[in-house]
Fold these 3 entries.
Entry 1:
Amino acid sequence: MAAFLNISADLFKRKYIRRLDNRYALIEKRTSNGQYDCIFLKDKQCQVYSARPKQCRTYPWWDHLLASEESWKAAAQECEGIHETAPLWTYDEIVKKEKL
C-alpha cells in the first residue's frame, strides 16, 4: 500500500497504522452517523483498491456478516456491492479470491 501511495513504509505506518491488541490495523475515521470507516474509504469506494490487503479483498465474505440474514442486510447498507442484481459467486470462487 505504501508503494501504491508512493510513500515510504515508515511514513505509511506512522500515518495509517495503529496498534490494536497484539496486531496492527489501518486507522479508521468516524463518520457523521457515528460509525467508523477505513481511512481509505471515500464515497463508499476504496481509494487504494488495487493495493488493498487480504482482509479487504475478502470483504464481505466475513463469517460474522454471513452468520445471519440480518447481519448481511446490515452490511448491505454500507457496501455498494451487496444488492439483488450483484453477480453470484460460488464457494470455490470466493475461496480462490481469498487466496489472491
Entry 2:
Amino acid sequence: MPNSGSARSSRILAGLGAPMHEDFLVFGSPLIGESELAEVEESLLSGWIGAGPKVQRFERMLENYLGVDHVRCLSSCTAALMLAMKVLGIGAGDEVLVPTMTFVASANAVEHAGATPVFVDCEPDTWLIDLRAAAGAITPRTKALMIVHLAGRPLDMDAVNAFRDRHSLLVVEDAAHAIGAEWLGKRIGAHGNLTAYSFYVTKNITTGEGGALATEDAAIAGRVETLALHGLSAGAWQRFSDIGFKHYECDAPGFKYNMTDLQAALGIHQLPRLDRWIERRRALWKRYDSLLSGLPLTTPAEEAPGARHARHLYQVLVDETVERDVVLDQLDAAGIGAGVHYRAIHLHPYYRDRYELRRELFPVASDISERTISLPLSPKVTEHDQERVAAALAEALTRSPVR
C-alpha cells in the first residue's frame, strides 16, 4: 500500500507548513503515494498541466470501473450537478425533490438552475431520502428527483427507478460519497440516471478537487463536455496538441468546469486501489462498531441486502441527553478531528428564510442534525487511531452536560 509518510511526501508536506500538531488525527486525510507524486511530476515536466490526455485516460478508467458508456470529468461534484440540471432542461418554473439531509451543494445546484428545491425528510435508520414523503411532495411542477447516496450507502435503485417511472420524473443521483457503492451487483451510476461524483480531498479517492458526471447517453456526454469548457467546440488539447491546430466556436454560454491533467494524475493511481480501500474501510467500520458498544450513542445501520456500502462516512448519533457540540469541542481538544454530516439544508438561513421552512416539517433530519458526529475513517486510520478515538469519545460523552 502506498505510504503517504514517505520521505518525499514528508518533504512536500513540510514545505506547506501544515499548522496541525503532529499528533492531531486529521478527519478524512487522503492517502497519497509515490506513484501519484511521480505522475504529477511527469505532467509538470511535460508542460501540459491543463485538461488533456490524462483527463481523458481517467475518464476511460472510470467508464470501465463504473460500467457506464460515458464519463466526463469536471472541476467538482457541484459542477457535475449543475451541468446535470442544465442538460436535462431543468429551470425556471420547475421543482426538484431534494433530501434535506445532505450537503448544501445538492440544493445549490437546483437553485442556480433557476428551479425550486422541494425538501424531503429522510428515513430514520438509513438517513436516506424517504420516498414515501417524496411522493407526497410531488406537484404539477415537479420535474425531477435528486437522490443522495449519503455516506456511501446506496439507495434501493429498483425502488428509485420505479418511483421515477411511476411519476414520470427525471432522476439525478448525487453520488459524491458513493463511488464504489453497488446495488444488486451494479455500480452506483450504472442504473440509467445521470450520476455525479466527487473527488474532493476527503473522498474515497481524491484528485484534490474534482468530480465527474456519468451517463449512458452520448449526446448528453458531448453536451456536458462542451458546456464544461465555455461552450467551445474544441478544448485546448484539441486546439494546441500535435494532432493539428483547430479553430473553435462558442455555440452556448458555457462554464469553466473542466478537470486538469494535474488532478487526473492523482485519480489515475487512486482508482485502481478503490476496492481494496473500501474493504479496509469496512474492517475499520466493524471495529468501530465493537469499540463503541455500550456508549450512549447509536452506530450506523447495517447495509441492506443486495447493497455494497462504499463506507465513506462513519456517523454516530449521540443520545438525546448529550450536548453534541460539547462532545465535538472535547474531541478537538483531545486531538481528534471529527465532522458533522450534516446540518440539514432546511436549517440553513438562506433556505430556511427563502422557503419559510420550519424544523418540525422535517422531524427526522432535524433530530439527526443536532446529534450526529462523523468519526475519522480512511485507509490511513490505524487500529491505534481508532482506540484513541474511542477513548476520547467515551471521555467526552461522560463529561458532556445533560440536556
Entry 3:
Amino acid sequence: MDSRAPTTTPDEHTIRVQQLFVAHQNAIRAMVLAIVPDFAAADDIIQEVFLVVTRKAADFREGSNFLAWACAIARLKVLEWRRQHPAGMLSEDVIETLMAEAPYHAASAERSQALVRCLERLAPRALELVRLRYYCGHAPREIARLLGLAPQAVHVALSKARSFLRDCVDRATRFAEERT
C-alpha cells in the first residue's frame, strides 16, 4: 500500500480547504482591496474566490502554500472583474505587478488593510490625485493638464499624500503590533 495515499475523503479535503480559506480570508481580502478600491466589488470578488477554491479544492495539495494558491485565484478574479469594470481601475499591467508582489503573510495583510483605512482618511482632493496617479495610471503632467493645475503642484500634493499614507500605515501597524 502506498504510504502517500490520502487519509481523508474528498469531502473532508474540501472542508479542510474551506477552513484554510476562512483562516486566510483577511489576508486575501486585504490583497483584493489593495487593488479594487470598491468594498462591495471586493466582497463580490472574495465570494467568487471562495466558490472557485471550493470547486477546485481537489487541486490543492495539503502542506503546500494555501495562501499563495488562493491569491493566484484571487488575481485571476481581480483581472476578470477589471475587464468588466475598466473605469477607475489600475491598468492590467499594474495589477499584474502588484499581485505578483501580493502579501502572502499576515504582516503584509495588516499593512494592506491599514492602507485601505488610511486612503479613506485622505482629503478628497488628495484622494482624487492618488486615484488618478495610481489607479488610472496617469502621469503627474497629465493629471495637471486634466485638473488645470501646475505640474509642480501635482508633484507636491502626491508627495504629501504618499507621506501621509506611509505615516498613517506605519502608525496603524505599530498600534496593531502593540495590541498583540
